[in-house]
Design goal:
The protein contains five helices and seven strands, in the order αβαβββββαβαα. The protein is α+β, with helices and mostly antiparallel strands. It has one domain: NAC domain (Metal Binding Protein, Guanine Nucleotide Exchange Factor, Chain A), CATH 2.170.150.80. It is found in: Nucleus.
Amino acid sequence: KLPPGFRFHPTDVEIITAYLVPKVLKKPFDTRAVGEVDLNKHEPWELPEMANMGEKEWYFFSQKDRKYPPGIRTNKATTVGYWKATGKDKEIFHPPTMSLIGMKKILVFYKGRAPKGEKTNWIMHEYRLESGKQPTPNLPTDITNAATINASSKEDYVVCRIFHKSTGLKKVVMSSYAMPMPMVAERQLGFQESITLPPLMDYNASSPLAPPLSLHASSL
């Protein structure tokens, strides 16, 4: 486990270079944070208990479904529902060379069967290796080799980040308290005129009874 206070939240580039590349190349790397699971055999709410670590998001290696060509929207079916791809895949570039090294696909879980499934708040970010059409000399060899091996191997691995999207209830509740105070009083008490604060007394700053300087009308 990670030390107290630390959270596992890698960037898109780190997921590709620090985890997916060594996994494909079968090189040693820290496996504490990323488990391995067949996503077609488990519902999303079962995955947190199966993860190596994580409180609000969970990471897994999984093998990509080869029934569909790359770039095609796919439905990953489970017993209860299915994962449906949404939006356009995001390109992931290697910062030093700005070369294409991976893609991120966003999927949403639906209960039931397509196309009449019920949308849920379970989200998946699927990361896969990808190489550009033209070879890049400055790109690390491991990344190039991993992309080539993964494309031709039966074990076509991806990294999946699973999380449950918030409904936004907190934002709605908090917004009700963001109304200016005079307006709230007018609505609740039926006043037609804005409430004004009484004038402040002219305190002597040197007096021991003087209030702190930070207590102005604007802070009431």
